[in-house]
Amino acid sequence: MVVAKKATSPAKHVRAKGTLGIDIGGSGIKGAPVNLHTGELLAERIRIPTPNPSRPEAVAKIVKQICDHFADLAEGPVGVTFPGVVTGGITRTAANVDKKWINLDADALFEHTTGRQFSVINDAQAAVMAEVRYGAGRNTDGMVLMLTFGTGIGSGLAYRGVSMPGVELGHITIDGVDAEVNASANAKDREGWTYKQWVKKVNTYLAHVETILWPDLIIVGGGVSEKADRWVPLLNTRAPVEVAQLTNEAGIVGAAIVAHQSSLSKSAPSKQ
Ligand code: BGC
Q1: 30, 90, 96, 157: which to mutate for ligand 1, most atoms within 8 A of CB?
Q2: Is the CB of 228 within 6 Å of ligand 1?
Q3: Choosing a second label site near 103 at 20 to 30 A (CA), which of 83, 199, 212, 238?
Q4: From the CB of 83, is ligand 1 less than 6 Å away?
Q5: In what side-by-side order are the strands of the sheet with 90-91?
Q6: pLDDT band (50, 70, 90) for residue 272
Q7: Would the CA dihedral through 180, 184, 190, 196 be positive or negative?
Q8: Ligand 1 centroid to residue 24 C-alpha, Å
Q9: 167 alpha carbon to ligand 1 midpoint, in Å?
């Protein structure tokens, strides 16, 4: 089943080609071509449910389906987000997806399945890249920490517009418990907590995070940010907090940014 979602801008009159961004989540795989001049989608995004079990080959088939769907609107390199640690195109952890992803060369898997060039990065890292370029972080020059509250807790860090891989703050241990267990949006739903009850856990979590990092801005995202007025005013962080502006498009847009950047670096003459 393919569910089309409303695009930021209508595709009807658009002829330009974009860069394809694909966002792999625990429940859905979403993709759309992105206009990197504006950060807007060039066509309605498509969403296909994540296969269960979410084995690499099954996910790769869906990634190919999305590439084929947008073949006329986006050629060339493709960016993909993954809900786990990714270093150098290798997926290192798989907290909320099939364990077969651990230590898998995901760039190579997607390239083999589709014949296109791929850049796979962590979902929250993609989101921070999109937010600092086009969204809530675009006016902040210093350190921006993005935290996404969903099934897990994703974290991405950017400084002066540049992000780095391997920033994994969702699994820090608080009172002997993985932070995600108590402070993710999933925990709120699982326990039936009110926003007020849940935000206490989030404040404890953020206090720990702020002992390690001194960001100039914290951006909060994830599905729960759609009801931000219910909980964001209750946060008591040292850094100012902004709500993500690209909402559920941040992963797609960030993935497209990375695809574009890595195609530039791969085509640049070697310095050695
Ligand atoms: C993973 C992170 C990911 C986050 C959001 C966590 O469980 O460890 O890498 O960014 O979920 O998907």
Answers
A1: 96
A2: no
A3: 212
A4: yes
A5: 86-87, 90-91, 104-105
A6: very low
A7: positive
A8: 11
A9: 10
pLDDT at site 271: 43
Q: How does the average pLDDT of the chain come out, rounded?
A: 92
Distance CA 135, CA 128 (A): 9
User: In the structure encoding, which two tokens stand for residue 94, read together?
Assistant: 């798989």
Neighbours of 12 (CB within 10 A): 6
Query: For residue 129, what are its two tokens?
Result: 């890249």
The average pLDDT across 149-157 equals 97
Q: Provide CB contacts within 8 A for 32, sequence distance 6+.
A: 7, 20, 21, 41, 42, 43, 44, 45, 46, 70, 249, 252
Does the CB atom of residue 106 touch ligand 1 within 6 A? Answer: no
List all residues 6 or more positions away from 95 whose beta carbon is below 8 Å from its beta carbon: 83, 84, 152, 170, 171, 180
Q: Where are the alpha helices (DSSP H) in 153-219?
A: 179-183, 185-191, 195-212
Q: Are 239 and 206 in contact (CB under 8 A)?
A: no
219-251 residues labelled b (16+ CB within 10 A) or e (exposed): bbbbebbeebeebbeeeebebebbebbbebbbb
22-64 pLDDT, tens digit each: 999 999 999 999 999 999 999 999 999 999 999 999 999 999 9
